[in-house]
Amino acid sequence: MASVNSTYTIVARLEPGHLQDAIGRVFLVDLSQLLARTMDYGRHSSASQSGPASSSKFHHPYFTPAEVDYLSAKQRGKLSATQEDKVRQTACSFIESMSARIGFPRRTIATAQNLYHRFHLFFPRKDFNYVDVAHAALFVSTKMHDTLKKPRELLAVSYALRYPDLVAKSKNPGGEVDIDIVDPQVVENDRQRLLAVERLILEAICFNFTSRMPFPYVIKLGKAIGASKELTQFAWRIAIDVHRTLAPLQYPPHVIALGCLYLAALLSSFEQPPSASQNGALTSHGLVNKFTKDGGWLKVYHTQAEDLEEIAHTFIDLLIQVAQHPSANTSPSTPSSPSPHLPSSRSQQSLNPHPPPSPFKSDQLIRLKIQMRETEHTPRPRQPLGTADPSALYGGDNAAMLGKNEGTMRFLFGPPGVAGHV
Description:
- This protein is mainly α.
- It is built from 16 helices and four strands.
- Keywords: Cyclin.
């Protein structure tokens, strides 16, 4: 194979209907131009330390909780879990603020947040500023959803959020920064870092640009199970902020959607008197009973009650955090349709906006968690794909090869035992 140091091999898993002439076909994507303009992250210091001549990286669409815990602990370094979560929420708020100014649709924002979370399952936090990773995650997300913006356009919005004094110097009536007034060397350095991290994100997702969101499922499943319009809207808002957590990396979108509907019913009914049904829709209390007293109907949606309860606990923990620390940028009232431009008077607060007070008190949420623990199902065991030890999949040469130019890395569009098989 020619030019082995700058060539990636990407093996696509195709649907059965497209396999007549494609079985065993290997697509070679020469990324030499991309590698030439990006940094050589983690280059080995000597030939004796170099990795194998070739290796494979499998795309994992979802991870088990054991895998997420192992990978997060490995990459957080000396940070505590609380400190790591604070950085995660700050990055998600930064992505939200940039997207609100530009006017990105919700699918672009949610995908960017997912990419940020996935990136730091494979790359240590100490080596990257959250701003650089957020830039690159949003840039990749715009490509995935055909809402493309150039790196300089993203940087201009970022400068407006991070450096409000530049907004005052700019003549742009929309409160944006005229990037021509910024030092060209600074802009170029930031652009190079964005492109460098973009390359690493592409490697982390194995160049698999599939992205499925829970939002359409919230609407469809809400109608299917008889939820009211108001409850479905509440579940939609929960689905927005659930992307601040790692739940979308662990469960497919239809399970996330059902979890959001379940949680919306829980929050609407807990310590509240029963309400009358309107227009034949199930009340919040009725929907909670439907979820908790599973008569097998969840199997129709290929979902298990244990997973819905875990999703609910994950998001309640987020609500408890914002209730105890209002400046944590984790409000569940994120707008579903961000306006293209924010008033320039808010520029200084846009990077770390203070969310409106949570309607839920922390002690109330803790009581809800206790009540759930008393009646919920035992969490089902979920083994990592291919082995019971998560470190066996992510602690070897395959993970170490990410971001390096040595050898050839083969990216497969599926997990071990699935990629290449029908």
